[in-house]
Design brief:
Layout lengths: L1 E3 L7 H10 L4 E5 L13 E5 L5 H8 L4 E4 L7 H14 L5 E5 L12 H16 L3 E6 L10 H5 L2 E4 L5 E2 L4 H13 L7 E4 L5 E2 H12 L4 E4 L2 H10 L4 H15 L9 H6 L6 H7 L1 H5 L5
Parallel strand pairs: 1-2, 1-4, 2-3, 4-5, 5-6, 6-9, 7-11
Antiparallel strand pairs: 8-10
Helix pairs in contact: 1-6, 2-3, 3-4, 7-11, 8-9
The structure holds NADP nicotinamide-adenine-dinucleotide phosphate (NAP).
Length: about 290
């Protein structure tokens, strides 16, 4: 039985689906089991658990053979990762833990809190003695769907400077995760998951525009202005500051490497951004959900 945390989210929901397609029995963690997606069949058991509540994690992880450890972005995310790892140790079964981290993990960049939280979780996992695998994806293509209104207004404004980023499709990350959870030979591996190319935000704006059927320009925001914009829009300050740090990494060109790991895991090339944008043209044009 495989436990999937973050099971209702962007990546986790696709992992649950992929595991079921392989006939795996899944226990899916979520805070409110009443909110379990209708598409989960009898092979998926929803279990109520909170990353902040060790007792709930003990109950959720009991009997697990493997755990997909994906925590949400949160000021306590490092502690949340530790809590799940500690609960996995307490099962006494030594389940394999596949840690969902972020690209850059191996470089351990200073002052990038989201990556730093995963580094801390990773160190805890290694020290736990549990068998482990790490998936370290770069930024998701899907993040741009949240900017569809700006795309329709003809402007992509992020503090990404002129750095190129090898963004990746979250669906490809989920496919790689299914392989890491069910395949052999991944123990002790850190798989960096990227798209097939590094694109500047100017190139991304162009490709979003091509899909949306209008010209879209890229405006490289100053970090302070970007932060003020996010705070003004009601973002949690910890998260907003973290986003500016992450874009700083992007602007410095430190997220541009293209890794072969995803294709090796899935057996097919990673989806391109142009393909993703074309598939989501209706959303980008404001015409529907898909
Ligand atoms: N977005 C990116 O570009 C990117 C790139 C690389 C790595 N990452 C990493 O990916 C992770 C986020 O993945 P995602 O975008 O798939 O997540 P997401 O869509 O934000 O979903 C978060 C999931 O976590 C669950 N959750 C939230 N708080 C919880 C809590 N206290 N206890 C138990 N479950 C909780 C949610 O479940 P319920 O709300 O249903 O309870 C949901 O299933 C982060 O670790 C981030 O650092 C993101």
């Amino acid at each position: 039985m495989i436990v999937v945390t973050g099971a209702t989210g962007t990546v986790g929901s696709k992992i649950v689906q992929g595991l079921r397609e392989r006939g795996e029995s899944v226990r899916a963690l979520l805070r409110d089991p009443a909110a379990a997606p209708a598409e989960w069949d009898a092979g998926v058991r929803p279990v109520a658990a909170d990353f902040a509540d060790p007792a709930s994690l003990d109950a959720a992880l009991a009997g697990a053979d493997a755990v997909y450890l994906l925590v949400a972005v949160h000021p306590e995310m490092a502690a949340h990762e530790r809590n799940v790892i500690d609960a996995a140790v307490r099962t006494g079964r030594g389940p394999r833990v596949v840690l969902h981290a972020a690209a850059g993990l191996e470089q351990r960049p200073e002052g990038v809190r989201f990556v730093g939280a995963h580094v801390s979780g990773f160190d805890h996992l290694v020290a736990s003695g549990l068998p482990w695998t790490v998936l370290a994806p770069n930024g998701f293509y899907q993040n741009f769907l949240g900017m569809a209104a700006a795309v329709r207004a003809g402007r992509l404004t992020v503090p990404g400077g002129t750095g190129a980023v090898s963004y990746v499709d979250a669906r490809d990350v989920a496919d790689a995760a299914v392989e890491a959870l069910t395949g052999e030979g991944h123990e002790g591996a850190i798989h960096t998951l990227t798209g097939p190319a590094a694109l500047t935000h100017g190139e991304i704006a162009e490709q979003l525009g091509a899909a949306a059927g209008r010209e879209v320009g890229y405006l490289a925001a100053e970090p302070a202005a970007a932060l003020a914009g996010m705070l003004g829009a009601g973002w949690d300050p910890w998260r907003a500051e973290g986003m500016v740090e992450l874009y700083g990494l992007y602007a410095a060109g430190l997220a541009s490497a293209v890794a072969p790991d995803l294709a090796k895991l899935t057996g097919r090339p990673a989806r391109s951004f142009a393909e993703f944008a074309a598939e989501h043209a209706a959303v980008l044009r404001g015409e529907g959900s898909g």
